[in-house]
Amino acid sequence: xDSFTFDHIIISPDRQIGLHQQETxxxxxxVRGEGTRTIGDKTENFGAGDLVLVVPEMPHVWxxxxxxxxxxxxxxxxxxEPAEPDYTIENISLAFSQDLLSRIGSDFAELGEMASWxxxxxxxxxxxxxxxxAIGGLLMKMTEETGAERLLSFLKVLMEIWDADxxxxxxxxxxxxxxxxxxxVQNYIHCNFKRRITIGQLSAYxxxxxxxxxxxxxxxxxxxxxxxxxDLRMDMVKNLLRNSEMSISEVCYDCGFRNVPYFxxxxxxxxxxxxxxxxxxxxxxxxxx
Length: 289
Description:
single chain; 289 residues; alpha+beta; Jelly Rolls; Arc Repressor Mutant, subunit A; 2 domains; 6-stranded antiparallel sheet; 18% strand
């Protein structure tokens, strides 16, 4: 039976690799760290305890923010806080091939239905809540196991993902598949929305002239490139205002705006209220959740 790879990684956020894809399946569990992730056509926030299965050949990237000291999963690391703040990120990655899944299905009749489910997946999967944390606990246990023990745990992890009731879509290839021009541009935008993005950069990246790119993008998405970038940034802004303790200025710069006054004016023009008013309204006891 072909092997699988298991990596327990503790590094600084700036050492994370950029947008990439691989031939294998990749299961990623965040032990410590937070930020935004892009998987296929979807960008969303993540934090400690998130568990995601990425299907083969799907572009993906995790962008970590500077972690808060102690911002990990409770129960995994008992004991007092370290004397010095620990700003590293920690995650566990489990990679395995489709050939391995096929062998499991053919060699073990009892696992054939499970292997077929994996083979039929065309989108990546997020397992939230208690189910995700339970599978994360299995991965944490694997850090201390022998090779043979890890093989048994690996099969258990596959079964738990298959059996999870709360799993949901966490990214697709998009209507035009990942090699289409529009999908390439969308991936670039999702991975670089914190930076300044120009039509020239996008046209050079996609290998098409700027005018044709703008026309094609509007036809396929119903939005101009500028609208698409702004909508993405505003979605990230609203999420951070609702769910983080970051200051207004930190949210501004973290979501790609160049200065706070312009950010405030833009936010009020689009939503009819200031960022501060939005945060207060979203966090009030009567707000819809």
